[in-house]
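Objective 1.3, modelling of assemblies. Example input:
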Amino acid sequence: MTRISTGGLIDRSKTLRFRFDGTNYSGRPGDTLASALLANGVRLMGRSFKYHRPRGVLSAGPEEPSALVELRSGARREPNIPAPVVELFHGLEASSQNRFPSLGFDLMAVNGLLAPLFSAGFYYKTFMWPASWWEKLYEPLIRHAAGLGRAATEDDPDSYDRAHLFCDVLVVGSGPAGLAAALAAGRRGARVVLCESGPLLGGRLLAEHTEIDGMPGPAWAAATEAALRDCPGVTILRRTTVAAVFDHGSYVAVERVADHKPVPDSHEPRQRVWRIVAKRCVLAAGAFERLATFGDNDRPGVMLAGAVRTYLNRYAVLPGRAPVVATSGDDGWRTVADCVRLGIGVAAIIDRRSEITSQQRQLAEASGAQLLLGGRIARVYGGTGLYGLDVEDAAGKRQFVSTELLAVAGGWNPAVQLACHLGGKPVWSEHTQAFVPGTLPPGMSVAGAARGTFGLAAALAEGSAAGAAAADGTGFAGSAPAVPRADDAATTPAPIWFLAGGRGKAFVDFQHDVTTADIAQAQQEGFVSVEHMKRYTTHGMATDQGKTGGVAGMAAMAALTGRSMAETGTTLHRPPYTPIAIGALAGHHRGKDFRPTRRTPAHDWAAEQGASFVETGPWLRAEWFTQPGERTWLQSCTREVNAVRGGVGVCDVSTLGKIEIVGPDAGAFLDFLYINTFSTLPVGRVRYGTMLREDGFVFDDGTTARLAPDRWVMTTTTANAPRVLQHMEFVHQVLRPDWRVAFVSVTDQWAQFAVAGPRARSVIAAVLDAGFDVSDAAFPFMAAGNFTSLGGVETRLFRISFSGEQAYEIGVPSAYGDALVRKIAAAGAVPYGLEALSVMRIEKGHPAGGELNGQTTAMDLGMGRMMSSKKDFIGRAMAQRPALRDPQRPALVGLKPVKAGDRLRAGAHLLPRTATHRIENDQGWISSVAFSPSLNSWIGLGLLANGPARHGEIIRTLDPVRGGNALAEVVSPCFIDPDGVRLRG
Amino acid sequence: MRIPCPHCGERGNDEFFYLGAAGLTRPAADAQPEAWHDYVYLRDNPAGKHSELWQHAHGCRRWLVVTRDTRTHAVFSAVDATP
Amino acid sequence: MEYSFVSLLREALRGHTGWRPAWRDAAPKPAYDAVIVGGGGHGLATAYYLAKEHGLTHIAVLEKSFIGSGNAGRNTTIIRSNYLLPGNERFYEKSMQLWEGLEQDLNYNAMVSQRGVLNLYHSDSQRDQYARRGNGMRLHGVDAELLDQAGVRKLYPWLDFANARFPIKGGLLQRRGGTARHDAVVWGYARAADRLGVDIIQNCEVTGIRIEGGAVQGVETTRGYIATNKAGLAVAGNTSRVAALAGLRLPIESHVLQAFVSEGIKPMVDGVITYGAGHFYISQSDKGGLVFGGDIDGYNSYAQRGSMPVVEDVLESGMALMPRLGRLRVLRQWGGIMDMSMDGSPIIDRTPVDGLYLNAGWCYGGFKATPASGWCFAHTIARDAPHFINSELRLDRFATGALLDERGAGATPNLH
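Predicted structure (tokens):
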């Protein structure tokens, strides 16, 4: 055990049991998986992507490139989870990944021996011969070798939530700068949201030995948290990572509500995505310590010096015996100081510099370490765990040091990611020796280490000032805030540490196994731009997105090309800051709740009648009503058609769009919308109309009735209802604002039913309240009017027919729809569904979805003559373009199989009977088909080149994707009652 | 993005439907085909300030003319499309 | 140096000291026979085919940033030739055939991987539309299979068949469809063009197009004036801006399209799947990341970033289709700028300015088109006339009405 006996922010009174790779371990509340494994002496935690190098934990945060595990099991298995961010819970299960057969003995590590072949971009240069082997052999091998962890093989059982927040000041990060900013803004009365990724507020204060206002760092953080809770406008979100910045002060944060538990509590989401709209944002996300580049810098036991302090101070874990500290500046000395304070003997201290302070000399003495100024690491020993180093002093004298832990301090990179999401490029700061935020998103300011300000006192001052300024900017002025006091000495930022030489590979991307040699090769091959270098070597593209190694790679390229870091530049940071679960972003929208479901007022009635429902856009509509003894949908559908044609049926048409239009200019408005004229329509009449888009193609069709001189009601197709309304609003508000007209969708307000068949009139008469005359003389074909039914309920009646039979559409307010349809059915109407409706409209040759596909013109659909030449209307001009008037365009025809019993299928193509089956001979397609009980045959509607002139011709219908090849006769699209005797009956 | 609806206040862009460039004048019924081609198809598509039509579809349902920078998404103004 | 296993082995044995730049970082010369503006996949492919098929030797490709910095490196890497309209289908099938021989032709492994593209359908009418499309493909001699639900289950048994709001009823499968490694396509064409003498000039932005007497004389650039009588624009995303330098106004809007990649995982999604009840398409790269995308954001934009509503929309569709994605994580999200044409199909044509050629309007479809786009554009430039294969991708089709509107959405770019 390497647990330090005192200190740390862990609860030593409780024990948590967990498993890693099948072995049982125990840890403490407050531990992470990484700290608990280290406390149990486990240093080997993962394998790398390409060479399967054994890896330990490098860091103590989300930047971790190496210690990635599969967390949990079964349906909750999560691959690639960095062990340092996993809060330990009782019963936690984790496994290492990307190894075979085991973490300790990984056969795939043979890749390391083949490393000379697996150089940067090697796959672009080979695997090309023979060509067919790529899919068969090479690629499957590569795919199986690639990837990291395994996804769950079951559906995610957890739920996810979404929520919104609006605030004046968003503070990202609760380290010293963030806490100071939140307090300054909160005390001014601003609405503040403070987001902290971890479970505790404090950031690096939890990891370092510090003192603020006379209190230890963690105590000050807790006191500040209490002070923030006293500010009424402050919201604190723990375990919440601000992941992305969008335009206009929009931020996205992910709250890990239940990831620290074995499973979420009942009714608790696993995670919640917050959409935060903030007037100002203070980015205080801190910094990431960067790795130093030397041979075998990836061995388990080589760690970032700041991470070592986190494990020492926060988790009370010594990650390895007899630590060696290697530092390029002052920062590593803090690790030495912590070791001294905790009584941990340091084996050696290597400082890049030749001069150090007297305090540092005293520390070195107190630590008992050998001090090597101007020294370097010459060799790293230990495959699956560090056991020693060859170190060299300035004179080049080499010696072996026995150690299990090398703490490397190579400087820090500000966490600039969020500052870059709107395209602002980080800029190189010579003073800071790091990339710092450049052009910021509007409303954002940066404070503390995220800005390259690494001292504690300075970070507190910057945070206070930024918080106060942000509050000022949103109207919460106040006097200068009291800045919390800390007495740390200013430190000199350390340069990037690039140690040439040494044995073994020097990695600049641990996870993707990108080495300095790969960078050199990329440079040699011309991939010099950092973006090219990144894409060619995959440097910085792993799950950690180069948070520790990114700048090291750029420094390597800068060294190779002799350019400065500023000239070399950096790649772009894209959202998210750290990976976000797909389920969290989808929220509740999955399964049946993917999209809302619209049901008509007659839905329950239809279900009682045995309806089979089908999704049509957001609606559920009855396709057919299965009766006892019916085994196929076609039997049900055919019975329904026969019931209508031989008697009377009722069909729910409530889903059709209904738009009520009022005003003195409504007639002119309709004339402008439709190709045909409506202004001349008498009150009490209804007319069929077709609308074009402005580009001259058919947009929608339907009927519009004039109920009063200035009141009209329009119906649209179900599919286009929202778009037609939007189009009308555009036409009125943008093109014709002077017209006095108003309109509103009433689709949801009215239930409407088609009642069709030779006995339709008697059913309507029975349904309406007594005293109405619906005789043919009083209410002829294409009449419309207001009636009452169900004892005084307002009722609209339209004598229109889609089926070709004597037919009505009857509408009542939605609340009465259920009652009305029951009354209609009781009067003898047989329920019929969408399929029967479709069969009958195809028998009559009415265009619908298959024909109104946005690619057809009014002429194509046989409605060319409806286009008025006396008025302007939407689409009129563009419909005159030559290609839209070409007589060779496919136009609407009916199709009937030559051989009785042959089945036509929609989607089949039409070719001349004897032509070869090639695209040059393609003349059209079948748009709709039905089995017509009336004709006892399959029939179809299609669009055929010059079709109306080809009635009587036999053509071939070709459906290779379903094996269809039948001859059909071109006929009129109206198969039944072409003179319309029935519908006028 | 956030769009300041002059009727409803600032709202997320998911409440709006976008059509395209504003300020196009629909030609007269008897205009030449070229004028119609220009109106229906040709666009300036500037990288910079752009006046465009948005409808507050999940709000007041008014069509708005929003002036916005297509490079930065900064919104300069949003007014009702009906003068 | 010819790339092969042998050369790789040789270099491995001598510490990779022999590799040379994949292409020369050329400086501009005063004049060229042809100048291609835009160093993306299309521009580089155009230069390659101009040199290879038409024997032009003095060619420059001008790129304002680094090659492949635009949409060539931002797409979801899908290749397919499953179009409805003959004018598109013959073009994309030409592209597919070029993809199939690309690596041997370029001596560069672009990882063209024909693991199948499956378009799901969720209703009878969608099935019939796919049947119409698939039948058209078959008449072109292109592979297409219409699967029923059982057929889809056989390929992807773990899609949501049980609890879907819009149940999967089947799919249109093109087995020859798949993916290619996008950056490698850029580098492969660059290297191959360079080997034929093409000058690839990076960090060279075109700032003006000199026209006299209605004909192109040359281009002004940030690296000086370059004389040429043939200038081809292959700058999708920025077409309107560059064409405006020649006084052209085009049927194009620039829109942002977002794309996403997940963390790397072991093989899960074999081919390409597109959802039919929402905007979502997904594949898995050879490296293990799930690569996916959805609809454009829907407003004019030159900023290479999208907005949150579309992010949510894409991932909602993803979860509706594949509920086991829930615990996998989005690693990176970005935006590219699309030339959205007014009918949703591209333009490869001459322009009203003599010697100025246009390759534009790629909407979502630019990556898969790369080889044929270059091939046809090269032909159009070299012969001053389109090839039959791009004969319907005309600029004047908006005036004549001979549109290529696959979706029937009309002159509204954000509905294509």
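Chain B has one domain: 2-80.
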